[in-house]
Each structure stands twice: as C-alpha cells, then as structure tokens.
Amino acid sequence: MPPLAWLVICVVAGAAAYVVGWPAWRSYRSREARDLNTDRYLAWRGRSSEIPRASTREGMTNEERRRIYAGVGLAIGSVLALIAFFGTS
Predict the structure, then answer these.
(1) Residues with Cβ < 8 Å from 55, sequence gap 6 or more?
(2) What's 27-56 look like in SS3?
(3) CA 33 to chain centre
(4) Could you give the 3-state DSSP secondary structure of residue 18?
(5) What is the reported pTM?
(6) What does the alpha-carbon distance between residue 76 and residue 17 come to, in Å, rounded to a whole number?
(7) d(CA 25, CA 85)
(8) 60: which DSSP letter?
(9) Is-contact 55 19, C-beta < 8 A?
(10) In 10 A of CB 52, how many CB atoms?
(11) In this structure, what DSSP letter does residue 13 have?
(12) Residue 20's pLDDT is what?
C-alpha cells in the first residue's frame, strides 16, 4: 500500500477515535464532578451524614465503557497506521 494511504488511514482512525471516545469520557467525568459537587454542597449545608457511607458513584455505564474501548481501539489502529506510514516511506 502506498505511504500516503497509511497516512490517510492514520488521520481517519484518529479522528474516529476522538469522535467515538471523547463524548463518553466527558459524560463520565461530568457525572463524577456533579456527584462530588452534591456531596460538597450537603456538607456545606450541614446535612451530610457523620457516618461514613459507601460510595454511591456508579462508575462508567456499559455504553460509556463500550465507546471508550472502541475509541482506544481506533487510537491504537491510528498509531499502527502511523508506524506503517513511516515504515513504508
């Protein structure tokens, strides 16, 4: 395959990794920040419990996890295409 094709594959796979993975990561982080802000607000208002409780954070949803794994796979493919580009040029 010509080197330019590997470079195009690299750019397309990198862009796809960003489009697939970034919204899921942003959703996960915003939910975590929102939960933390709620805990801080309740503590500030004096309504937090004195008894340490188990974390109610749910972590990533299955959809977010699946999208992030897909984004990581595409990013790895992009890096491999970049290596192939340098190897063939």
Answers:
(1) none
(2) HHHHHHHHHHHHHHHHHHCCCCCCCCCCCC
(3) 15
(4) helix
(5) 0.73
(6) 9
(7) 29
(8) -
(9) no
(10) 6
(11) H
(12) 96
